[in-house]
Specification:
The chain is α/β, with parallel strands linked by helices and 438 residues long. It has 11 helices and 18 strands. The protein has helices spanning 48-54, 73-76, 79-96, 115-126, 208-213, 220-226, 287-292, 298-308, 336-346, 365-406, 408-436; strands spanning 11-16, 30-34, 39-42, 63-67, 107-111, 134-140, 148-150, 153-159, 166-171, 177-187, 190-199, 230-232, 238-240, 253-257, 275-279, 312-316, 351-353, 359-361. The strands form 3 sheets. Strands 7-8-6-5-4-3-2-1-18 form a 9-stranded mixed β-sheet.
């Protein structure tokens, strides 16, 4: 995707889509999520730091938080490199603006038990104990241990609720959102964390006409009213901002479900997601091997998306045995068969096989309506074009008969009419092209 493309407030950028080990075309798992005021990174497979540098749509400079699904190497071997790079970017920026590096906000890392010991060893041995500043939170099912600090690491634990859900982030700031997680099975000795990022419902559009009628002039006060706050006007009158807002709309939701042979425990977490990113290591022809290795097939991913009521599905974490496209000459099966299988199981065409550096914008509900309206307008334009073509053809037939009877003068008049008719069709075609450009 073009790096100059519009950013709509939530976007997924795949930095790695391979399972187990990297290939010449796919790196190990790493998924960037761009938000309004910050970015998240889900998993840091080997080479994630370099992949981010190559990406035109994702930068480590805005990463505030890293989420780890489980402790297998293809999901964590790139973590220290990413942390060091984020820290160095922050230090360089601090120097430019005259801020002391000690005041840099630590990078947050959430993950399963063991993530703190993993980073402790790396930072002690590979950075002389002077590694990046990191706030680590281990997601545990039992009573959390006491928090502690070591070097530049602050470590704490967070226990799940009675339903097995971790309420990781509950941001009530400028762009309110939550991040939750649940456990899903992977291997006998290890489970995986499935995550969901969800925006809170957005307030409706400000009714400016209603405010004007009340005598409230445009100005900074509009910003407070837009937030739904109770505001005191210059004349002392108090108004409730919610009375001047249109209907609210649902926030966007993203679910990330990786490395599992049974993703059903994450169904409630992913309910009504705009986009589900799901493990699709194998095609269903290898269902037994998928189960034995703790992974999903593309059919399982499709079933999950359908049951969750998701709008879109992105398949990822592909075995290296699959190419980009099926090639019968070399007997290579491609990920296109994964998409076909997932489409059938999902019951929707809204399925894509993720590729490294692919970006997927998650559009607000209003954006979806705009797209739907544009498609309807395109259909109407196409219908009008076909109707005008039909009328022009009938006119041409009629004009042809008259030309045969009326001679050269009549034929000249008919040519002028024909040009006028063609011009009208041309205008409709231009309209169609404009609508398609939306």
């Amino acid at each position: 995707m073009n790096k100059k493309a519009h950013f709509g407030g939530m976007e997924v950028v795949f930095l790695g889509t391979s399972a187990t080990r990297p290939s010449a075309f796919r790196n190990c798992t790493a998924i960037g999520v761009k938000l309004e005021t910050e970015s998240y990174l889900f998993d840091c497979g080997e080479g994630a730091q370099l992949q981010a540098m190559k990406s035109e749509r994702f930068s480590l400079s805005s990463v505030s938080t890293i989420f780890i699904t489980h402790m297998h190497g293809d999901h964590v071997f790139g973590l220290l490199g990413v942390l060091c790079e984020v820290q160095m970017i922050a230090v360089d920026l601090a120097k430019k603006i005259g801020q002391h590096p000690r005041n840099i906000r630590p990078i947050r890392v959430f993950g399963p038990p063991g993530i703190a010991d993993f980073l402790k060893v790396l930072m002690t041995t590979a950075t002389d104990g002077r590694g990046p500043s990191v706030d680590i939170c281990e997601l545990v099912q039992t009573s959390p241990k006491a928090p502690y600090s070591q070097g530049n690491m602050n470590v704490r634990q967070l226990q799940c609720d009675q339903k097995g859900v971790w309420h990781i982030i509950q941001d009530k700031g400028e762009c309110p959102k939550t991040v939750k997680a649940v456990l899903i099975p992977h291997k006998p000795e290890m489970s995986t964390l499935a995550y969901a990022v969800e925006e809170e419902r957005s307030l409706g559009t400000l009714d400016v006409d209603k405010l004007n009628k009340l005598g409230v002039p445009p100005g900074p006060i509009y910003k407070e009213i837009k937030k739904g706050k109770t505001v005191t006007l210059p004349n002392g009158q108090k108004i409730d901002g919610k009375d001047f807002l249109g209907p609210s709309s649902a926030g966007r939701k993203l679910a990330i479900v990786l490395d599992t042979y049974d993703s059903s425990p994450a169904l409630e977490l992913a309910q009504d997601a705009d986009l589900v990113i799901h493990d699709s290591t194998f095609h269903s022809e290898m269902a037994k091997e998928a189960y034995d290795k703790g992974h999903s097939t593309s059919a399982q991913a499709g079933v999950f998306a359908r049951k969750a009521g998701a709008q879109n599905l992105a398949l990822t974490h592909f075995s290296n045995r699959y190419g980009y496209e099926t090639n019968h000459l070399t007997n290579m099966i491609g990920v296109d068969v994964h998409v076909e299988e997932a489409v059938e199981a999902f019951g929707s065409e809204s399925v894509v096989a993720a590729e490294d550096f692919m970006s997927i914008p998650i559009i607000r509900e209003s954006g979806k309506r705009l797209l739907a309206e544009a498609r309807e307008a395109q259909k109407r334009a196409e219908a009008m074009i076909e109707e005008e073509k039909r009328i022009a053809a009938l006119e041409d037939q009629s004009a042809g008969g008259k030309r045969a009877d009326a001679g050269d003068d009549e034929r000249g008049n008919n040519k002028k009419k024909s040009k006028k008719g063609s011009k009208g069709v041309g205008k409709r075609i231009d309209l169609k092209q404009r609508i398609e450009s939306l």
